[in-house]
Amino acid sequence: GKIGILMLFISITLSTFSQEHISIAKRFFSLFKPNIDTTYIANGPHNFSIKPYAKTEQGITSFLYSDTIENAQNYSFKITDIPTLLLGLELSYKGFSFGYDVNSKILSGKRKDKGYDFNCNYYGQNFGTDFFFSTKNQVEIKNDNDKKIYDKTIDCFSTSRFQASIYYILRNQIFSMPAAFTQSMIQKKSAGSIIFGINATNTLILLNTSKIPTGLDSILVANTMFKHFRQTALGISCGYGRNIVRNHFVFHFSVQPYLPIYMEKKIKLTNGEKLQSDMWDLNVGIKSRGAINWFYKHHAINFNTVIDANVANQVHLNATDAFVRFYLSYKYVF
Predict the structure, then answer these.
(1) If 174 and its partner were Cys, which of 40, 84, 193, 246 is the partner (CB 3.0–4.6 Å)?
(2) How many CB atoms lie within 10 A of CB 314?
(3) Separation in Å, CA 79 to CA 153, 209, 228, 322
(4) Chain centroid to CA 279: how far?
């Protein structure tokens, strides 16, 4: 009687509850395997790829500080990584890839730059992530007129940069990021889409006082350089990307301006001053990608570039940080 009715009610409730959870789970996992319009894109015929590549990159950090005292001195300088040729290897499985590269001078035994780079990314049809880390210790110091303060390349500064991003493709049924960067998908017809994203960056520049060459110490103090610079930023972005298809070529461009929802800069100067701020009057950034790909059967040749830059401005402080990467690669897929 009553027990039977109660058991029936419980079973119906549990059945409804489980069906709702199954439905929610299906909708969640469908985000990672969207329906595609095969008129525009198709799944790639291969899963694995190996890609030797050559790369050059440059980071630029500039800094302008005005004292709060009237008619006080302005401090302005720029630290620039020395562009070098890097050689690397990247392995990919479907949309996942990992790459590592070193300075090409290591092959000749003349390597002075002790830095290294690695990247790890996943280019999915609707979601994707990109992680990149780089260290350098060969830099130039310039003033705001782009003239060298010290006429030699120095290694007393070390720079490290970490960048991470997540993207979501709105029109993922017809536009494919993997087609432009990993070839795990094929773009059959030209298409574009709005792209939403989250970007995180961390830049650290340190001065090793024990490595300052003779004659540079007084120059650093006279020009009031920083001996410790750290910038951490987290931002949300919205932009546009497009793939243009011509025969076996795919041309890609995407631009994603972003507004940091969190930014902190910590700066120590050679004159002993310490500056720190997480409140900025102006704070904007941009992440952009470009690529040219030729793909035929098992072979692909790629040229691509990634630019990440941001500018932050206060009443008495302006800081700009930019990093540019260029890649040229050959890929064999199987």
Answers:
(1) 40
(2) 17
(3) 11, 16, 12, 11
(4) 23
Token representation of residue 202: 């961390």
Cα separation, 157 vs 211, whole angstroms: 8
Query: Quick check: 6 pLDDT over 70?
Result: no
What's residue 98's pLDDT?
92
pLDDT above 90 coverage of the chain, percent:
19
Interior angle at CA 222, CA 221 and CA 224, nearest 5: 60
Residue 211 carries which DSSP code?
Answer: G
Residue 150 has pLDDT above 80, yes or no: no
Token digits of residue 161: 């940069």
Question: Which are the contacts of 137, defined by CB distance < 8 A and separation ≥ 6?
Answer: 113, 114, 115, 155, 157, 158, 159
Q: What is the pTM of this model?
A: 0.80
Cβ contact 262:278 at 8 Å: yes
Residue 25 and residue 187: Cα distance in Å, rounded? 29
Confidence of residue 171 (pLDDT cuts 50, 70, 90): very high
Q: Whose CA is closest to 81, among 146, 141, 3, 150? A: 141
Q: Which residue type sits at 329?
A: S
